[in-house]
Amino acid sequence: MTLFLKSTTESPNYEYLNAVIRARGTKLLEQEVFFTLAGGTLEDLELFLLESVYGIRCREQLAIGGSSVLFRVENALAAGTADILLETASLARGEAGLFFDVLLSMADLENGRLLLRASRAGEARGKPPLWRMYCVAGTAFYDDLWKKCFNAADGAIRCHEEENPMASLLGEAYRTLYETGSLSVSERALYSGWLDYWREQLGPLKGTNVRLMEEYLGRLTDTWNLSTWFRLGTELEHGVRSFLRGGWGLSSLKLEGCATLECLFEGSGWEIPFLSGQRDANSVVLRKFQGLFHLWQKRLYRKDLLGIHVSMGYAAQVQLEWANLSMIAAGLSLNIPSAEIVRHLLLPGE
Q: pTM for this structure?
């Protein structure tokens, strides 16, 4: 599904949009529901989903037949989440529509990363992965790349045949992968191109709502830069400065000069509760930091009721619900104890 067609000259319809979203928000799952589902079985989870907002997609999976319970649940959750987000985005007008496109296009980044990683092997592949279906370029485009383009050169050519900004950005990332052979440098090209594109789209707009979207992009940049800081420190990669520009709290000066997390986050504006005491592994710290970003976005839901805040908070909660239910499904399929499953969830009450 390609959006990118909404004019920002049209007046935004925040009052109507947020009223609809707040009504739909009553269907989001409470924390206790996740506890109960984590203590049940995979079959219990499927039965629960059949009577939920994911029910139509669950019944579709049952009608297809021939697949495992886990496969049915995962596909129903992915499709149901896309239904919710795309239908809600279709209601937005003016700048609200543009801002929703930013949120949805995060799916294109994730889908692009999967394709870039698969392209290094240069071999025929099996079934496509479970795409983030609320992407703006459309899953048919990503299916086509998966089935027909087994190397970076083929992927770059196919992307530039598509009239979609997200496809063009992925095409440039494919080209970078072809020229450098480096997955990390090609992913950086994808991220930086995505950020530059949206900052250019937001540039002519003014006001509180666009400033919030700029903060969203900046905080997101911080999460990517922290990952790079853990991986490379202050080194260059293929002669390219690794850190993305435009971070919200982690400046280039800090990223390039700090050797400790305490130095990096000092004065950053981020509230980091996990720096004191015994230090976790880098992967755990990164996961917690990404969790802080999602919680910041989620909490916007109860902020300005006449701005983009409600949409941003709602989108975050829908995505987190999908992630939590998927985590529960995977855990139950592996017979992981319920307490251990719950420990890995990012719950609504947090």
A: 0.91
